[in-house]
Write a structure and sequence with these properties.
Blueprint: H1 12-33, H2 40-51, E1 55-56, H3 57-64, H4 68-80, E2 84-88, E3 96-100, H5 102-122, H6 128-146
Antiparallel strand pairs: 1-3, 2-3
Helix pairs in contact: 1-5, 2-4, 3-4
Amino acid sequence: MDEIRKPLEEVYFFWIERAIKAFRQEKNRVFTELGVNLTSDQWIVLKRIHESPGIHQKEIAALTYKDPASITRIIDLLMKHGLAERKPHKSDRRYYSMFLTEEGHELVERLLPIAVKMRRKGLEGVSEADQQAMQRALNQIADNFTS
């Protein structure tokens, strides 16, 4: 069958979207059961700040593949919920450094084992070799669009 008439069920990007949607639905279900009200994007930003205390918003945007305006909104919500805080950057007053509050640290530490368990569940039955091949393929696809 030619590429133009290929049904969605045979398009790789459709499969990627399906996998992401299934993962996010599971994350939402698990977080809701735990009484945690975080979106996937909020979790990603929270985790990034946890990994790099003092990171500034532009770096968060670049490292999470999100636009700066979205990051600002997400950070504002995290701050509103008492999970993150902005502090003036030590050497460049144009930037703010981001840190987790004590409550933010506690939440990340509580959720990390659950996140690892969910990732493992998603990769059940996928060999290490297939995981590495998938990572290479997805990186190549992203590179094809960004270079």
